[in-house]
Write a structure and sequence with these properties.
212 residues, alpha/beta, two-stranded antiparallel sheet, 9 helices, 42% helix, globular
Amino acid sequence: MESFPRHQCLIYEGAPSRHLPAMAAVAREKLHQNYRCLYLNSPPMVAGMRSYMAAAGVDIAHEVGKGSLVMSSERSHLAEGRFDVERMLLGLEEAIQQALRDGYAGLWATGDMTWELGEGKDFSKLLEYEWRLEKIFGKYPELSGICQYHASTMPREAMRHGLVAHPSIFFNETLSMVNPHYVRLERFSSAEAQNAELDSVIGRLCHPEGVF
């Protein structure tokens, strides 16, 4: 039986860079576990991730050279600048299969959702993407990852969707929790994402120092 959900979300506000040490620590541990690690974000964040991983003792040139570590700002999953759910999921599934063919234990992936949606920022497709992504997590036990939800760059409805669509919430490299607000697809209704109580939950998640 699976001990902990592998599909996690990080919900936060403020400077994205303050979460880089935690992401670097998780990526380093996954590399040690023989996972291929995929980091998707803006060019400044990719540069920051490289710096923090190097400071954590990771030989960046070696890991990138052998294909264990992939850090990219490329958005080839966009179709004419628009977020293409099908293309994104097909690319992820291919990446999992390739990692396994290359002898890795699995794939660990993380990315900033606002960045992944492209300049058009069409948040209307976000919930569909997360539900379908959850099915891929069910199909591939070798997949784990963190979807990053930046409250300062996303509309409230998108933040609610992110909260209810993830089985687990990530805080830092030593603390995650099972998400009590997660709703399975077959039980989801539009009323779930209109629940104003979720806004206060999101607020507390953005300031976890007041919770723990």
